[in-house]
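Structure tokens please, single chain.
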Amino acid sequence: MTSQFHDRLMGQKKPATKPSKKIRILVGKPGLDGHDRGALVLCRAFRDAGMEVIYTGFLVTPEQVAQMAIDEDVDVVAMSLLNGAHMTAFPKVAKLVREKGGDDILLVGGGIIPDEDRPALEKHGITGNFGPGTSLKTITDHIERIVRERDSKRPRHN
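Here you go.
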């Protein structure tokens, strides 16, 4: 007997709750970085946190990452680089995403990012900028908090 059927039989109603929308996240490695183990770990953590994950694979251009973000209508682009090109590739993705109309897409950075580079990345709208050893929970909590805050401010269409 299904729970809904049982509840109707017993005269009980479950509160009508609107299921929360799954966060759609694109995980990308924009540029020449052939190390994808960390990105794959992130993909699994995001999936386990209930997100819908799209992985670009590695060796994609910033243009490809931006276009995939728009085509896939994602909430978040999580970028990871270990090769030191984050100050070039991440801002380029940010610029292209914005030019293509993705103003509401959260951009998150990670990888080998020196502390002194973080403020410049944040000026480009790239949040987080997590380094090695950051807990997966810290990263998923960051994404969930910002997306939920953003979505709570949007007008609802019924």
